[in-house]
Amino acid sequence: MERRVTLKKVSLKAIAQQLNVSVSTVSRALNGKPGVSKRLREQIIKVANDLGYTPDPLAVGLKRGTTKLIGILVPELKGDFFATIVESVERALYHLGYRLLLCPTEDDPKKEEDHLKILVNQRVDGILSAPANFRSNKSLYEAIINEHKIPVVFFDRLVEGVETDYVISDNEEGMRILLEYLISKGHRKIGFIHPLRGIYTSEIRLKTFLEYKDKIVFQEEWIKDGKSSEEDAKEAFTTIMRSKEKPTAIIVGSYHMTLGCLRAAKEMMLKIPEDISIVSFDDAPWNEIFEPPITCVSQDPREIGLIASTILLSRLKNKKMGESRIQTVLKVKFLERLSVAFIK
Amino acid sequence: MERRVTLKKVSLKAIAQQLNVSVSTVSRALNGKPGVSKRLREQIIKVANDLGYTPDPLAVGLKRGTTKLIGILVPELKGDFFATIVESVERALYHLGYRLLLCPTEDDPKKEEDHLKILVNQRVDGILSAPANFRSNKSLYEAIINEHKIPVVFFDRLVEGVETDYVISDNEEGMRILLEYLISKGHRKIGFIHPLRGIYTSEIRLKTFLEYKDKIVFQEEWIKDGKSSEEDAKEAFTTIMRSKEKPTAIIVGSYHMTLGCLRAAKEMMLKIPEDISIVSFDDAPWNEIFEPPITCVSQDPREIGLIASTILLSRLKNKKMGESRIQTVLKVKFLERLSVAFIK
DNA sequence: GTGAAAGCGCTAACAG
DNA sequence: CTGTTAGCGCTTTCAC
């Protein structure tokens, strides 16, 4: 009794003809609109099922202006964090009939802009975005929200000044935890390899780091832009560790870059934590398996994805939730492992 | 001289009115169709640019039956391999104006089926798929290809018997390399934790492993279904290493599962490779950083994505390439590192 | 070379 | 309750 597997193009018209009724009646019946006799409605539904009817989303979209498409902008997919968020979002939206238009930005505001314009053009119902830059594309986002009335929810990052929903982690707190921990372990000479400048999380973490200027031994050469990439972080790490005066600990601003730093340490035959202590932003499955396991502050990407989806969904349902913004800041979790030495 | 950032709904009609010509002329002009005077065409193009016109993809799709949408089915995003493929595909298709509809299947044929039906319904122009199962959904795929005429390109995996393009890796060869290597290192007691049964790569690797039955010490309890998951692999590994008679080496059928095995080894205080040798399918950035670095056969996800996209693109261009199928089998690369001991 | 008209599949007034 | 009509934005005959 297998369901027909080959759903040939069957339109409202086909159903209408088969029952000798008009297309509009069929439309009403199938959409649960009032104004169709119970008996006829049931017949129509039956025929529709038998024929394997599914509405043409293009036609519906054209007419109704709603596409059941959600655009999701992420800098990248590699490296578990954003991948997990996207998976989580997909699971939350899937059963409600929404589909994901995937837009990797590579942290390039220009590519982000292109994607955004296309999403508007495609008439997506909503947009989830981890923006490439905390300043760029501000007016574009505002136009999308205010003029095109497409709900936008930021996650992990945001664009400063854009009034909309978001779910991010407490990056200040994350940096403070890491710093306080290192200090408590006796470290004063502390370096920071931060993510690509311009990214919201990079700016916040850097800003918070700089607030500790006086509590630590501050040295310009120990602060480097790892550009969110494994290679650049590797180079940054190497440079720092080659300088005359070395730090005793380095804070690494993201999981990709942690890989780069570990690679560099390995090549330089540096023992962690004996020769250099390392702590990192973001956890990953392999962090725990490394020798030594890496101490870090972590965010839960699954939760971020779920919350972002939930917020978007409520906007979608409730077009007129008005000005009340849902802005969530998640606590980070501190995972103490073995990558930090105690300094006397 | 910034480009207008807020492209309000501007249609062909708007342009037509502004120049006092008909909509059809504008359409022709903008689509480079013959039958418009050079002068008029230029004017139209200018006005279109000034107004920031972009064709409505829904309307175009409805009319022309082409949507510039590509569906991509992957089991998951976590873990770099498929994430990198998707990124690579996106980069290849992006500049040609194609967008990705992301469909994570979680290796569930039912979810795969749902996604496929929706993709057909959405009238995607093409489908890239790493199918969840080497048998399921065969007739659905065939219907999509033959009846709906939507080109399908399999990557990494395929569905047996479905006549279409694909790009996969040489899994038999991969398994042979691993096995021969272990044997050359003196191993005879070899276990295998394979990916979820039913997945193409799992079946092939298992089949090839079994062909070595007579050249190794074969033991049922050393072969386990790691279900492509970290947890299941961890449990499988633990069980195997608790059995009375232990293998000296274990082949792990995918990168996720490698993490699980390493975790298990750590918990059981097993030293690699002294207590147990490990080799793995698929490489990952962290494989090299582990202590010891993991010996493996690897495929290049970037290349897989690129080839798959290229094939699809040529199908899209050349609807009538006819029966000639492009079926690519990529060589795997063997990366010898330090996770295998030499057994006298 | 250009315009008018039909229609893709659907929804939503407006009439009966 | 049901059918007719119009139209979403675009492409594509078919006339002129």
Overview of the molecule:
2 copies of one chain form a homodimer. In chain A, α1 crosses α2 (23-30), α8 packs across α9 and α10 (230-242) crosses α11 (255-267). Chain A is built from 12 helices and 12 strands. Chain A folds into 3 domains: 12-55, 434 Repressor (Amino-terminal Domain); 63-168 and 301-330, Response regulator (Rossmann fold, 3-Layer(aba) Sandwich), CATH 3.40.50.2300; 171-299, Rossmann fold (3-Layer(aba) Sandwich). In chain A, the strands form 2 sheets. A 6-stranded parallel sheet of chain A has the order 2-1-3-4-5-11, with helices on both faces. A 6-stranded mixed sheet of chain A has the order 7-6-8-9-10-12, sandwiched between helices. Chain A has helices at residues 12-19, 23-30, 38-51, 57-64, 81-94, 109-121, 138-147, 171-184, 200-210, 230-242, 255-267, 301-317; strands at 69-74, 99-104, 126-129, 152-155, 165-169, 190-194, 223-225, 249-252, 277-281, 295-298, 327-330, 333-335. By secondary structure, the first copy, chain A, is of the alpha/beta class. Chains A, B: Keywords: DNA-binding, Repressor, Transcription, Transcription regulation. Chains A, B: Residues 10-64 form the HTH lacI-type domain. Chains A, B: This is Transcriptional regulator, LacI family. Chains A, B: GO terms for molecular function: DNA-binding transcription factor activity; transcription cis-regulatory region binding. Chains A, B: InterPro entries: HTH_LacI, LacI/GalR-like_sensor, Lambda_DNA-bd_dom_sf, Peripla_BP_I.
